[in-house]
Amino acid sequence: MTEDYFDDLMVNRQRLLWAVATRRQLERWEPLVAASVRAGYARHPFPDADIWSAEIEHHFTLIAARNLLRALDLPPATSVPVDPTLRAELTEGRDLHEHWVENLPVFNVTPRAAQPPRRSGKEFAARNPDRGWSAPGLVDT
Q1: Which residue intervals of 42-99 are DSSP H helices?
Q2: pLDDT band (50, 70, 90) for residue 107
Q3: CA-CA-CA-CA torsion for 36, 37, 42, 44, nearest 10 degrees?
């Protein structure tokens, strides 16, 4: 069924849609990260409302980027190269956020007292034995 629906026009539409969605989410998230970094260097508190906004925009950026990867994977094959590490980390980050109920109690507790139940959490834990996960630069875990 999907082969009939995703003709060349629809594949190109999905690739464009998720490329634009990813760029828009980055435009929403990046200024919040920059403001957080600036506040840290100036030793000023970063407003709580902005922390919430950044966490939300980070999550939606990961969703859009993961869907862009899915669109690039649709046949016909695309000539857009995606670094395998970037692909893996975007997929893993999206999965960590998607399964937040299982991951927050594992990664946002110090010292880490439990093992993550899902593959994405296990892979993250293997590469980051002493780190939690959150929007980079916004929450120190």
Answers
A1: 48-73, 84-98
A2: confident
A3: 20
